[in-house]
Amino acid sequence: MIEKGKISLAQMNILIYPAILATSILSVPSITMAHAGHDMWFTPIWGALVGFLTVFIALGLNKLYPERTMIEASTAILGSVLGKIFGLFYMLYLPHLTGVIIRTYGEFIISNALPHTPMYAIMGTMVLVCAINVRSGLEVIARSGQIFVALFVILATFLLALLIGELHPAEFLPIGEKGLRPSIVGALAPAAWLTEFILIAFLLPFVHNRSKVVRKSIIAVLYVTLSMVVINVVCLLLMGDMTTSFAYPVMIAARYITIADFMQHLEAFVIAIWISGIFVKISVFLYVYSLTIAQWLGMKDYRPVVFPTAFLCTVFAYWIARGKSDISGIISASSNLYTLIALLILPSLLLAIGMMRQKISGQGKAAP
Amino acid sequence: MMAWIAGCRSCAAAWSNACLLRSAALALSFSLIAVLLAGCWDRTEINDLAIVLAAGIDSPGEGKDYLLSAQVFVPRQSSGGKAGGSSETTPGGVTVVKSATGSNLAEAMIRLQTKISRHVFWGHCETVVIGENAAKRGLRQYLDFLLRYAQFREHAYVYMSEPPAREILALLPPLERSSAEALREMGNLKLGAKVTILDLAKSIEGVGQSAVLSRLRILPPEQGRDKLATMPYMRGIALFRKDAYIRTVTEPISIGVLIMLNQLENYVFTVKLGDSKGFVAIKPLQIRTTMTPRIQKGVWSMHVQVETKGDIVLNTTDLALLAPDQVKAIERLWKEKMTGIIQASIDLAQKKLKTDFYGYAAAFRRHYPKQWNASRSRWESIYPDVETSLQVKVLIMRSGKSESPQGVPEDTIIRK
Questions:
Q1: Contacts of residue B360 in chain A, CB cutoff 8 Å?
Q2: Is the CB of A241 less than 8 angstroms away from the CB of B202?
Q3: What pLDDT, in 10s, does the model give residues B206-250?
Q4: Contact B52, B71 (CB under 8 A)
Q5: B266-416: which CATH number, 3.40.1280.10, 1.10.10.10, 3.30.420.40, 3.30.300.210?
Q6: Which of A209, A300, B41, B78 has its CA 20 to 30 A from that of A328?
Q7: Span B136-165, mean pLDDT?
Q8: In angstroms, rounded to a whole number, what is the distance separating the alpha carbons of residues A201 and A192?
Q9: Which sequence spans correspond to the domains of chain B?
Q10: pLDDT per position as a tens digit, A303-346
Q11: What family is reported (chain B) (predicted)?
């Protein structure tokens, strides 16, 4: 097997948490509000249904082939030609997704902290550190993830707690102003983010204690959903209908903190949260992509491809967009459909075919 | 980055061969890292910054250029006392004001930079003062700029000034480091309406499409003092329809406006008793205004309930303030007084200015979303006819340190 390291179930879930939240924390409040209006705060709950579905698909694939990632399983299920085509899609899709993540990071840092620093320095340094992390193996990614996620959660909770005094609970109303439909349309964005739970299908083979995997994965989805709801609620109660007019509502919220005249200008904490989260997120995606390439090509080790992969993703980060407006286009509702196809629909087709094959071969064995 | 990787590889290859080659490769890779780390593109030393404490926006009139003023902190004079020769009559002088004109604020800001030798930094701008003429032209441009340009803080307090904003910023108050600091402290004390940039934008962009700001004037300096050695102070409330300034209200209507907005603190109501010569002053401890919208059979109505508790702080009547009847009588008069003030401010908004300053639209939207969405386009014609019922509940909690009136002989006090 390519990866010799083993991680625990808890470590995997800890990796998944920032892998989903790191980017959603900044853009989900305003994207969901654009579609769902005042009902945006509970859209992640609809999204969670898609999250559960994704988790069950990933677990289903793992049940069919416990020791294989989705890419390895695809050749076993679809046969080598179709399976390689399936894998090729992910070879092309993953750098695109990773590129978007890296670019989102670059855009955020440039517009909020370092306006004069060239993009290649911001993205390049981060990708370099992540690549070193990935080369060190899954165990290292998991352990560094544990540290950074702790930081991420503590700082985020701290910031949100400081805002309690500025919130206006009256903003909760009206609920369902235009019926339930807008909130379901708005849920497409959190749903697209929650489909990233399909990462489980790549990481599960390396988890050594898989006995409680169903229960623990559901809890992981709930944690992510809860975090999204809390962030949306804080933005809504602070900024009301204006939430959608800001590029990074959470940043505005952090800048708004003023307690006792000295607890202010805390936006640097948001950047710290963001960097610690995005480090884990880029590492996880880079790892999954390197693993995909290595397995698709039948290599014995994924490490040689990590740096080229990292470079390719950085280049993709330039290719995908010219500016912030292009990025918004990529993470808007229509392209969420693209994400949904790649991370939900194709894996579910794979699972369906796999299950049918198993049934047929099972019957075939039973007959004689 | 690729070169670095190559360096790393050659380093690995050289491991077993020559120690010299290895250290050369290491040195090369480290020097390549140095290339990457050399640029501190966003480094600005603090002594290269001109820290702006307050921004002022003025306009000489329609169609003319805007004037953007910045109150810049002068760090040299803030630390320690002056070398000598400082006299009581000259102000502290830790701030200077620089201004520049432009056809819009962004242009003015860039021109302002050309007049200052340091990098102008707006991140600590805690106060924004908008001159009356600039306010008449509409706040939209200013709000967009303040909420788009990355450095401004959304928590900065916004005021409207009767004199040009530049003059307010130029003041050097004896009590505070700067007039910006004075205005921020006044905002925290809630001496007027406490409105941040975010609040202002929410209120204008919200369904009510209106806003209120505290209005500033300059306190005349004491005789013999420098004319800048004085403070700005708040007098009156400036009312905005959509984003444009329409008029100012002063006491007592401004008090009613603040009560309706749940923002009144620091006020004393004086009640004059009919038959006696004296009066009683009551300081409200808290005032809570709740609005309950109702739509019944197509009739839109709003129930406004004001609950307040207060302490007596002055009593020049002969009443002992112990008998429940006496307290009841004072409460009744207080209630009448408050009802009058609040009703006048409601009438001003609904009948005279026909502008929803108090959030009626938001309340209807929250509680009757269906009816609201059906008739939001007609809101401007509905609003003046919304039946407002006002209920004021007052309670006198305590009578201060004294019970019976002071400074009068015991036998004149009316105990019942």
A1: none
A2: yes
A3: 888 889 999 999 988 888 878 888 888 888 899 998 888 988 988
A4: yes
A5: 3.30.300.210
A6: B41
A7: 89
A8: 16
A9: 2-27, 48-74+92-250, 266-416
A10: 889 999 999 999 988 888 777 667 666 666 566 777 888 888 88
A11: Belongs to the GerABKC lipoprotein family.
Assign B91 a pLDDT band (cuts: 50, 70, 90). Answer: very low
Burial environment of residue A341 by CB neighbours within 10 A (0 to 12, 13 to 18, 19 or more):
middle
Can you list the alpha helix ranges (DSSP code H) found in B138-295? 140-148, 165-170, 179-188, 197-205, 253-260
The distance of B116 to chain A (nearest Cα, Å) reads 20
- Chain B residue with CA closest to A309: the answer is B2
Structure tokens at B355: 């502008």
Q: In chain B, what is the greatest distance between 2 CA atoms, to the nearest angstrom?
A: 113
DSSP assigned state of A179: B
Please determine, for residue B52, whether its predicted confidence score (pLDDT) is greater than 70. yes
The pLDDT mean for chain B works out to 83
Question: In which domain, by residue range, is A73 found?
Answer: 9-354
> Please, are residues B234 and B214 in contact by the beta-carbon 8 Å criterion?
yes
pTM of the model: 0.83
Contact assignment for A174 to B205 by CB distance below 8 Å: no
Is this complex scored with an ipTM above 0.85? no
Which residues of chain B are within 8 Å of residue A270 when distances are taken between CB atoms? none
CA distance A124 to B125: 34
Alpha helices in A163-266 (DSSP H): 181-186, 188-194, 200-203, 213-239, 249-256
